[in-house]
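Attaching the record inline, Q. Sequence:
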Amino acid sequence: MNPLDSIRADDVQTLRDRLWKAVTGRDEHRAADIVLTALTDGVDAETILLDLIAPVQAKIGAQWAANRLSVAQEHAASAITERVIAALAHHPALRTPPALGRVTVACVDQEWHVLPARLLAEVLTLRGWRVDFLGAQVPTPHLISHLHHHGADAVALSSSIPTRLPTAHAAITACQAIGIPVLAGGAAFGPDGRYARQLGANAWAPDARAAARQLADGIPLPSLAAGRQQIDDLPHLADQEYTLVARSQGQLVKSVLNQLEERFPATAAYTTAQRERTAEDIGHIVDFLAAALYTDDDDLFTTFITWTAGILTARHVPAARSLHPALNILADELKDFPRSTRLLARARRALDGAPLPAGTHPGATV
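Structure, as predicted:
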């Protein structure tokens, strides 16, 4: 039975609209009242988390991408969402004695988008699991140390940004090496879980409910193959393109920035802040190129480039004119790297022909 069957769809939408108004209006007490009153009125906590709070948070991200919310407004709204979840989690009526196994829920190192993992941790707690929620950006050595000290029946590993996939791969391999299976989740692993399978995760789930079902059904234990390395899952890494591009990111960013100033005099007149922002944008391009090399997936890079074009368009910046020069310079710099050349060529074609609506980040959805 769908949890929404117990309440009318228009009632849920009304609650969403009210919560949206409260969080974007920076009214934390009102937001908490809406959620806690819904609970008192008989809406179950899991429905509140996944069908009320999560869609509102997804809308916050989409509205930022469409340039309808500033970064500060997005951060303020997201912070209120976090505190509302905490208020709900601490409600006396929702204390569920743990009767199932232990699950460690963590975001991979350098992954700051914590809300999907937080929602999963709360859902599992409501369903009777003993949950160790480690939060955002957990370095793999610290994750493994925690598992050695406290144990777990499974690790639920969350990542929202595809550039974290190499780190996620290392975490998956490390957990499995000590006999603990990994359930992967989050937008970084692809809408169909393709990267979770590619990186050898024991299971993948598209959302918190599916993850809870997977855990309840049982996740196969990993094979303890001695000496398994990341290249065993991704033989294309043998060409060293990923390693060389990732290691030279700083040099590539500097070279692209310098050549932009030589080829386009207006760039040389940038303020320090504009120059820093441009370097940051180029760094993101190189990061996503490296992630696409790691997975050998053209779509990962082209999706990022067209998403970036959509973001620029929403901010009234000529997307093609802004992105093409950087991609062309990168192509010149990496002309001796066949896979990089292929990825950049396809991205440039996509940039010329793809529609450019501003939407959610390719890897930052709830």
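The mean pLDDT is 89. The longest helix spans residues 272-295.

More tomorrow.
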